[in-house]
From TrEMBL:
One of its GO terms (molecular function) is oxidoreductase activity, acting on paired donors, with incorporation or reduction of molecular oxygen. Belongs to the cytochrome P450 family. It comes from the Eukaryota. This is Cytochrome P450 71A1-like. Coiled coil: none annotated. Residues 1-29 form the signal peptide. The keyword Metal-binding applies. Pfam families: p450 (PF00067). Keywords: Iron, Metal-binding, Signal.
């Protein structure tokens, strides 16, 4: 296709303008920014990270210093890559960096309300207090030891049945996924096998889709005008479907717990799951309205979902 000289000149001028606009120096009245490698218009440094971003970041830091500014699409990002810089960010000035950027997948899957993704503020502080004191304390983690031991015994039994005499092949990946799902469900939702009606394969797929999507970085987070690519790739539809299924599951579990409590069937401390603990926190806050903090169902679902994943780190 033939391109007129005027159109080519206009295109070059536009690209040059965008390039120099992204590299303009701050005026005297503005704070100086950290050094930044040359980037591309609109996309910034995103295309430069490559398939091994940790190595690329190391090379950039060796050239530009331990603190540098990258522009990931429209998102300015300061990279601290030395122990001294990390201490400044995580200890000396931790309050200035305590908040979290909004992430589309987190908003969809965990309601944007969990401590790991919520912005810093009073709600975040109260959620952190509850998680540290009630959900992830050493006592609470130790209380799941019996469940972990039982799930390990079940997994070993499945290996023996799948490979009698040790002569057959065993799909260890599937067995480990089943084991981790068992730990998640028992720690978060209880020992009564509430997911049996859904079937093991359906539950496994739901958890797998949830974990995969929660770790997915969408293009729209960094380059909003390319957000349609996420929809084209099916991410939006998959996130909506997974979120709806997980939400329905949690709604059913919370309703079941509340019904058992109304019937007087409360679990003793050694068998209380995350939902029981969160409902206990709300009951205590209701009794002491002046000093307690209530969590609505959305906050309970968000906290339980992400804390369930953290249980696996202690398995």
């Amino acid at each position: 296709m033939d391109v007129s000289p005027f159109a080519a000149l206009l295109l070059v001028a536009l690209v040059s303008l965008l390039f120099f606009a992204t590299r303009r120096k701050p005026s005297d009245g503005r704070r100086r920014l950290p050094p930044s490698p040359p980037g591309l218009p609109l996309l910034g440094h995103l295309p430069l990270l490559g398939p091994l971003p940790h190595r690329k970041l190391q090379a950039m830091a060796a050239k530009h210093g331990p603190v540098m500014l990258l522009r990931l699409g429209r998102v300015p990002t300061v990279v601290a890559s030395s122990a001294a810089a990390a201490q400044e960010v995580m200890k000396t000035h931790d309050l200035a960096f305590a908040s979290r950027p909004r992430a589309r997948m987190a908003d969809r899957l965990v309601y944007g309300r969990d401590m790991a993704f919520a912005p810093y503020g009073e709600g975040w502080r109260q959620a952190r207090r509850v998680c540290v004191l009630h959900l992830l304390s050493q006592r609470r983690v130790r209380s799941f030891r019996h469940a972990r031991e039982q799930e390990v015994a079940v997994m070993v039994g499945r290996v023996r049945r799948a490979s009698p005499g040790g002569r057959g092949a065993v799909n260890v990946t599937a067995l480990i996924i089943s084991y981790t799902n068992g730990i998640i469900s028992r720690a978060a939702f209880g020992d009564e096998g509430r997911f049996g009606v859904d079937g093991g394969e359906k539950l496994t797929k739901l958890f797998a889709d949830f974990e995969e999507l929660l770790g997915t970085v969408t293009i729209g987070d960094f380059v909003p005008w390319l957000a349609w690519v996420d929809a084209l790739m099916g991410l939006d539809a998959k996130a909506a479907r997974t979120s709806a299924q997980m939400d329905a599951l949690l709604e059913r579990v919370i309703a079941d717990h509340r019904q058992r409590r109304r019937d007087g069937r409360r679990e003793h401390d050694g068998h209380r799951d995350f939902v029981d603990v969160m409902l206990d926190v709300n009951d205590e806050a209701d009794k002491n309205a002046a000093g307690g903090v209530m969590f609505d169902d959305v906050a309970i679902k968000a906290i339980v979902l992400v804390r369930s994943a953290q249980v696996l780190m202690n398995c």
